[in-house]
Amino acid sequence: MRKSLRQKLCHLVCENRLRMDLKDRINTELQNLYKSKSQLIRVLSEKWVKDEIICPNCGESLLKYENNRPVADFYCNKCSEEFELKSKQNSMGRKIVDGAYSTMMKRLKSANNPNFFFLNYDIESYRVINFTVIPKHFIIPELIEARKPLKLTARRSGWQGCNILLSSIPRSGKIFYFKNKIQRSHKDIMDDWKKTLFLREAKSNSLKGWILDVMNSIDMLNKEEFELKELYKMEKYLQSKHPENKHVKDKIRQQLQFLRDKGYLEFKSAGRYRLIK
Asked: N or C: which end of the chain has fewer CB within 10 A?
């Protein structure tokens, strides 16, 4: 009797766990079972995440949800954090394609909005180049770009997808497990995760938007230590992001004080700050 596809997969998964010796290499022995490369990558990447990736919040192994779950792909049985996995060849780029725009916008308002895993891989060697988690508190409506609806002649006429604008997320919102094929320690991953959990306290996306924009402005200075007058030079940028606000400098000072109180920044002296690593 021929083995079922599930039996073959189970056999290979068990076998591969014994032989896996490189944590940044995606296992490729399942590729003969799939004709579609996109389907193969999905199966390989999901298996790799389940086998190799810990929860950034508590350090536990992750469990996979059943297929076709609309909200998330993985979850932590200890702390209940949820994660959606997105994969892309070669480089992550400035944006990444996600699902339906309407669904995404609803999710951002719900309590079960997941965190995002982004896997960047080399299609020739099936090796992980970058793997990062973006905590859900960094994903706000302003970071979601609606794509053009499908044409009337399309099978799913009128359907509208969306993109996540990765370039608009502060550096502290991109927590790397692997960066340029180099693996980071579990301790560093979990420490980075804890640094920004205070953002979950923000009561509105508008308030969170100001905080994130000031964090991005600090990133643009590309300095560990900076002066308030340097950040004031970002006034036009912040005004363009918040045209309704006529007191941008006041808002800058307000957010700097908030970030200092939350341990994100250190106040060094009058008008001088340092990023806490």
From this structure: N
